[in-house]
Amino acid sequence: MRGLRITAGSVRPRVGHRGIDDPVTVAELTDATGLSGPGGSIGQQQQEFRVAVDGANLTRGGITVFDGLSCGFPRGRISVVLGGSGAGKSTLLRMLGGLQRPDSGSVRVAGQDITRLSERALFKVRERIGMLFQGGALLDSMTVAENVGLPLREHTKLTNPDIDEEVRRRLRAVGLENKGALYPGELSGGMIRRAAMARAIVMDPEILLVDEPFSGLDPINVRRIESLLVQLNRQLGLTVIMTSHHMASSLRMADRLVFLVDGLALSGAPADLIARNDPRVVKFLSASSDDYLEQPEPLRAVPTHVEPGPSGANALLEPIEVLGARTLRMIEHFGRVARFAPCIVAALLRRPYRFGRLIDDVYDAGVKSLPVICLSGMVVGLTLSLLGYTTLVRFGAEEALGGLVGLSMIRELGPVLTALLVTGRAGSAVAAEIASMVKDEQLDGLSMMSVDPVDIVVSPKALSLALVMPLLSGLFIVFAVFGGYTIAVGVLGVDSGSFMTSMEGAIDFRQDVLVSLIKASTFGALTGLIATYRGSISVRSAAGVSAATTDTVVIASVVILIFDFFISGLWGI
């Protein structure tokens, strides 16, 4: 970092009132490591790890991230995790929070091996942890004040005025006292990170996980957040574990450094770690800001020899292997959906009931779909009546037009076309929204606040689709019948009495109306389940959001048609 001079004796945090980029001498470093904060020296504190990783192995996408990683983080101290880009710093924090489980090894937090805990049991541990995500992970649908106050509303019995006062106090601490009414989309990147910091500390956690707290901040706010973290650590004994590329602040604050390299960890007090003269550590700490940038790989010559493709028996086996792999993935997803559906049902039955969020989701899925449903129903009714009349008139049976239109819409076209339209409009939107929340770590943020995303996000959206589908289907049928009646009587000259009598005589409540309601309700439940499931398993990328949206529309549409066939067949039609 420009202006920062690092030698074996020039790093040490919190000595005097230095500027952000001021170096520290080896004498100050040695003195400061002896006595700082409650509980004695750093050497003594290292024997009492609040958080510890032992022999963790993790492979992602065929790449080894951690290879027997072991490190500890002392109680009541500030530990800074350093390492190059891609070394696994953020992954380590996610592992400490239980968001990422290692392939093997243990992760102990406050005396518990969290790798052995269920997701519900993890919530109890996370009540003692606050986490600042690199992107903030604020909920887009809530204001800054609502985001900061969410943990208090979920886990305390404070009154609304008390919560509002506490939120104002926390926002004041990060310099956002006048920004509570804004939404995250109206904030700059640095302001989002500061608001997320306020949310991370609002419950006064015992352990604070902080991912790149200084990224995107100006020097004044870097100092503000740095001072806030040191104050929380010194006054409350808060255990702080943070990653950062802001070397001056990191070295000024750190009681302990954990340097990730080659899937392992080098750790110790700053003086001890520097004194080792490990070339990897020295090179990293002495690098300029330009050295942090990844250098492009040299261009490689394009091979002139092209390996031949599979031939003979291998060429025949390759499509079979691909088909087999896809079949296994499909079976795996069936199993996961079978486990996902009961979670939604359990969340709907679990207090507190999310009526406010359900109403909002019903509005998004139902009310906003009214224009397309009404217009489509009218057009389908007009078309069906016109084509039906053209066919029936050949046999002199045009008086049966009302029965044809009503029966076709109620039995089949109404619920099926409504389900396809709602899937394309509302189902895809639900999948895209949840996938975006996965991408921006908003669901992980909820989990770290011990708030189950299934409770607060997934179940209201799934239920809203199940509720609105029968209502929208009925509305679609009404507009379709009205459209068919209008063109039949007003344009084609069919007697209005004959039209209505024919429709009344053709429709049976049990065989037609009831099966229509069953179909619409089933399609709504299926669309809600598919949209929420596909969104929740999406990859954290823009491509992942796009894939979740497309898959939801395609899969739900096919499933609707399949279930329509089976329901019609089982009903004896």
What can you see in these coordinates?
Helices cover 58% and strands 11% of the residues. The chain has 573 residues and is of the alpha/beta class. The strands form two sheets. Strands 6-7-8-3-9-10 form a six-stranded mixed sheet, sandwiched between helices. Strands 2-1-4-5 form a four-stranded antiparallel sheet, with no helix packed on it. Strand 7, helix 8 (219-236) and strand 8 form a beta-alpha-beta unit. Helix 12 (313-349) crosses helix 17 (453-490).
Gyration radius over CA: 31 Å
Total of helices: 20
What's the assembly state of these chains?
A: single chain
How helix-rich are the residues, as a percent range?
A: 55-70%
The order of strands across the largest sheet is: 6-7-8-3-9-10
Shape: elongated
Q: Quick one: how many beta strands?
A: 10
Structural class: alpha/beta
| Low-confidence blocks of residues | 1-47, 288-304
